[in-house]
Amino acid sequence: MKFKIHRGTKEIGGSCVEVWTKSTRILLDFGMPLVEKDGKEFDFRKYKTTKTNELVSKGVLPDIHGLYNNSSNLIDGVIISHPHQDHYGLANFINNDVQYYLGEATHKIIELNNLFTPQEIHLKNTNYFEKEKTFKIGDISVAPYWADHSAFDAYSLLIETNGKSLFYSGDFRSHGRKAKVFYWFTHNAPQNVDYLLLEGTTISRDNKPFKTEPEIESELTNLLKRQGKINLIYTSGQNIDRITSIYKACKRTGKIFIVDVYVAKVLKELSKYAGIPYPSDDFENLKVMFPYFTSRRLKNEGNEKVLYQFKKYKITKEEISKQSDKIVMIVSFCTEIPKRSNCSGLCMRGSSRKPCKMGIVRYNTFL
Ligand SMILES: [Zn+2]
Predict the structure, then answer these.
(1) Between 102 and which of 64, 80, 317, 320 could a Cys-Cys bridge form, CB atoms 3.0 to 4.6 Å apart?
(2) What residue spans define the domains of the chain?
(3) From CA 195, how far away is CA 165, in angstroms rounded?
(4) Could you tell me the distance, in angstroms and rounded to a whole number, from the CA of residue 16 to the centre of ligand 1?
(5) What does pLDDT average to in each consecutive run of 10 residues of the chain (367 residues)?
(6) pTM of the predicted model, to two decimals?
(7) Cβ-Cβ contacts under 8 Å for 153 (sequence gap 6 or more)
(8) Under CATH, which number does the domain 213-362 receive?
(9) Which residues lie across from 41 on neighbouring strands?
(10) What CATH number should be reported for the domain whose range is 2-197?
(11) Rounded to whole angstroms, how far apart are CA atoms 40 and 11?
């Protein structure tokens, strides 16, 4: 077994590791970098018209034989550990004939991103794996382990071939709603691994403990009890653990929990894989708002059926304004904040509270 870390050391994101034997070559993730070489935010729009070979020569794309269009001797497989763009975001450059290996929910999330964002990553050849079910690509065997992470469907990977083994942790944590998965792993981790590639995003951070999701849920519950005005919470629409914490806090305080149509669709699709709240008769206090620009875009692109799907659970801006003291609303990238929302003027960034004119209650989205 040989391997090369093409990107992802000394930076957050852009993960990409090539593993090969004499007869098989695979890739673990193909992520978009979060920052440029000069430290500025990575903006892929400026490379949109640049040819693949130029991007390779500029170092924007890693030089990997058999991965891009017009490649001979194609790579045997690309494994996507979880649906965060810094782990799959450059996949639109990969040759259409390449085989992908990923969780089914991961694929679903990538497709939802195509529906609601400018992203256009259509994976043609997909093979779904499941936790602890080993599969083979050529003479390389891969065992996926479920991981606790802010991405819904995250895995660590044990790669084995010819008596050698490599463990790729992918992104993981131990304070989410799947913390048990992490503690299970500490007792069941593969032994005598030859190479360990470990995520280290928080290694250089302060040594303070992170709040667990149940702790955040009870902190939010106390906060919502005290608030008599609208609460806007800024979080990723795909951070299902956090959205579940907010929903539970709303339930405990008699608040109405509002998501936009994008978050509604994410919850609905992912409810097939886990018992999570989603717009339905089972979750009475969960309502859906339809932001104008997102709704218009869905309609213009022939996807108005997504809008009709949640019609029964619709709440209008007028209804929100009338009962703003009961409202808790997720603010995602497509939310339009109602005028005169009479905000609470309270902002939470991680563990520190600061006054905020926007009234956004913010919890860090990536942890
Ligand atoms: Zn991640």
Answers:
(1) 80
(2) 2-197, 213-362
(3) 6
(4) 13
(5) 91 90 98 80 79 89 90 92 94 95 98 90 97 97 97 97 97 93 95 94 78 94 88 90 96 96 97 97 95 89 93 92 90 56 39 38 33
(6) 0.88
(7) 82, 83, 103, 104, 105, 106, 109, 273
(8) 3.40.50
(9) 35
(10) 3.60.15.10
(11) 12
